[in-house]
């Protein structure tokens, strides 16, 4: 009998009680340890290869890698340690008792990324379509518990068909355990979900509870109810990708933070993101030696940003000029594009950048932009990443759709996130900063540690034209030349209340700086704030707007 058969079968040993005059004979092993070790390695290799070459070929034919191939791309070479590779389900009925493959359709363990510990689980679509059953779920529960206990990031490589129907409610309970652990780990360790295949029904909620979601075009989809159900209920006909594909979730719903054309580039970007995140909420993000001089001037900014507040420009070019080596990782690049959120380094230290984007809707804040920025602020604050906010905002987007859609509630999410953040926070006002949007974009009044402004800044309740129209409405209407009177009053309002030093005179801006010195000023300020320690009031938790 082989070791493989031993693992599959349960044998009953018969104990023989020796006569008093006799000594019990030593048990005779069926094979020596060399043979047992060889059998172990043979079995381990069969587990590693998967169910069959045909199943692997079918996976590759779909343009998808196997679970182990994905893990090899994610982790440093040779660093993976697997947990429970020989696990099998114990379910019966519907033919399951005759199909008990090792791993039960999920590979779990830990390794390193850039030398730092990372935990991972990967669904193996070749086994039960990656569907989750009791044993499958328990393996994930274990690795999640290990990640939380060890204080290390958790990456899930998702390619599964949802709950295993043959196991009924047991499979659903398995998802419940995953959701509970996702929530327990939230804000404690970084959680990253990589969507590499279908994810339907309740299975979609685990990625939604994590910090970042990656998707791959054409091969990954996420939805609660699939196209067939949608058509049956609503009559709408739509494809899988049209309903829940990568471009839909990266550009329309905002579910996915990153989208890629292939698995290799996707997993490489996951590695890059991990290099910008701390291991847990008790550590700082990893710093790197900076080749880019801390005192490098930004003379290019003098030409990149027009002085006229009505002219557009691309804020990405500003960020690129300021940060180390012009490199930054933009989050939700295709969703709510009127605000930018990015991770970058200044003098080798990781920072989170939130910026209005004048090239899109003039950088106005709306429902989606508020949600996007609020989520990013919360994530950075949870993982000790300082915040730099670049402000060029004309206000909140007016309109019936925005008001009825809850712009008050959604805008308050961003306000709450900033007010609740305890990491170092620096505001930089490039040009206009009007109304409530100025306050919400991390002004001194809501707790920014430092506020700087360029000499082109305009901070006011509203633009000069709108303000003059309100304040001098009767005078303008009664004038013999209303337009001339209006222009005079606009000029008067701008000179009295919107000149670049008005806020600085009142202590609402700490300094007005030369744009060419922006990088140096930010780096010096962040160095001073690095030791900042701030505690929130004792409470169970806050009650943010949702």
- Topology-level CATH name of the largest domain: 2-enoyl-CoA Hydratase, Chain A, domain 1
Morphology: elongated
- Runs with pLDDT <50, length 5+? 1-28
Strand content: 15-25%
Terminal CA distance = 61 Å
- Mean pLDDT rating: 90
Gross CATH architecture of the largest domain: Alpha-Beta Complex
Annotation field: number of helices: 22
Radius of gyration equals 29 Å
Which CATH C-level class of the largest domain is it?
A: Alpha Beta
User: How many domains is the backbone divided into?
Assistant: 2
CATH superfamily of the largest domain: 2-enoyl-CoA Hydratase, Chain A, domain 1
Question: Helicity, in percent?
Answer: 25-40%
Total number of beta strands: 17
Task: Report on the biggest sheet.
Answer: 8 strands, mixed
Structural commentary:
The chain is elongated. The chain has 2 domains: about 55-275, 2-enoyl-CoA Hydratase, Chain A, domain 1; about 300-455 and about 500-530, 2-enoyl-CoA Hydratase, Chain A, domain 1, CATH 3.90.226.10. With about 550 residues, it is an alpha/beta fold. The chain has helices at about 5-10, 35-50, 55-60, 65-75, 135-150, 170-185, 205-210, 225-235, 240-245, 245-250, 265-275, 300-305, 315-320, 365-380, 400-405, 405-420, 435-440, 465-470, 475-480, 480-495, 500-505, 520-530; strands at about 80-85, 105-115, 115-125, 155-160, 190-195, 200, 210-215, 220-225, 260, 330, 340-345, 350-355, 385-395, 425-435, 450-455, 460, 510. It has 22 helices and 17 strands. A hairpin with a 2-residue loop joins strand 11 (about 340-345) and strand 12 (about 350-355). Mean pLDDT is about 90; it is low at about 1-30. Strands 10, 11, 12, 13, 14, 15, 16 and 17 form an 8-stranded mixed β-sheet that branches. The chain has a 7-stranded mixed β-sheet with strand order 1-2-3-4-5-7-9, with helices on both faces.
């Amino acid at each position: 009998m082989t070791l493989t058969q031993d693992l599959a079968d349960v044998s009953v040993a018969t104990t023989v009680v020796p006569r008093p005059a006799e000594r019990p004979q030593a048990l005779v092993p069926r094979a020596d340890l060399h043979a047992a070790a060889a059998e172990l390695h043979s079995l381990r290799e069969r587990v590693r290869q998967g169910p069959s070459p045909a199943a692997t070929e079918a996976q590759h034919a779909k343009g998808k890698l196997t679970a182990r191939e994905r893990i090899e791309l994610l982790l440093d070479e040779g660093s993976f340690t697997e947990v429970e590779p020989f696990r099998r389900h114990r379910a019966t009925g519907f033919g399951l008792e005759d199909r008990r493959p090792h791993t039960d359709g999920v590979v779990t363990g830990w390794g390193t990324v850039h030398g730092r510990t990372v935990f991972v689980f990967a669904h193996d679509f070749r086994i039960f379509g990656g569907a989750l059953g009791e044993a499958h779920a328990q393996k994930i529960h274990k690795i999640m518990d290990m990640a939380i206990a060890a204080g290390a990031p958790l990456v899930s490589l998702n390619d599964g068909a949802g709950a295993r129907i043959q196991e009924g409610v047991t499979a659903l309970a398995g998802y419940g355990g995953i959701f509970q652990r996702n929530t327990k780990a939230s804000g404690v360790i970084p959680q990253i979900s990589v969507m590499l295949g279908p994810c339907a029904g309740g299975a979609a909620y685990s990625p939604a509870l994590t910090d970042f979601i990656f998707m791959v075009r054409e091969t990954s989809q996420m939805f609660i109810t699939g196209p067939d159900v949608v058509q049956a209920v609503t009559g709408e006909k739509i494809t899988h990708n049209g309903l829940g594909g990568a471009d839909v979730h990266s550009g329309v719903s905002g579910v996915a933070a990153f989208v890629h054309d292939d698995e290799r580039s996707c997993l490489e970007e996951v590695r890059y993101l991990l290099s910008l995140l701390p291991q847990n909420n008790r550590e700082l993000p990893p710093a790197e030696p900076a080749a880019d001089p801390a005192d490098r001037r930004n003379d290019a900014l003098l030409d990149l940003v027009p002085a006229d507040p009505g002219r557009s420009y691309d804020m990405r070019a500003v960020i690129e000029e300021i940060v180390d080596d012009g490199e930054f990782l933009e989050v939700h690049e295709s969703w709510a594009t009127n605000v930018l959120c990015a991770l970058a380094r200044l003098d080798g230290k990781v920072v989170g950048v939130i910026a209005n984007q004048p090239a899109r809707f003039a950088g106005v804040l709306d429902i989606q932009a508020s949600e996007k920025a609020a989520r990013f602020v919360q994530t950075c604050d949870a993982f000790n990443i300082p915040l730099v906010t670049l402000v060029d905002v004309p206000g909140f987007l007016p309109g019936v759709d925005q008001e009825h859609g809850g712009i008050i509630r959604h805008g308050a999410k961003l306000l709450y996130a900033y007010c609740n953040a305890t990491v170092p926070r620096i505001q930089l006002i490039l040009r206009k900063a009007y109304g409530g949007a100025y306050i919400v974009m991390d002004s001194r009044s809501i707790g920014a540690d430092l506020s700087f402004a360029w000499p082109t800044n305009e901070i006011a309740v509203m633009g000069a034209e709108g303000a003059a129209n309100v304040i001098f409405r009767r005078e303008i209407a009664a004038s013999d030349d209303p337009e001339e009177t209006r222009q005079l009053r606009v000029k008067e309002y701008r000179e009295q209340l919107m000149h670049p030093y008005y806020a600085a005179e009142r202590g609402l801006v700490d300094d007005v700086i030369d744009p060419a010195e922006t990088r140096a000023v930010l780096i010096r300020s962040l160095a001073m704030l690095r030791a900042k320690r701030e505690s929130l009031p004792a409470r169970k938790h806050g009650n943010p707007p949702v």
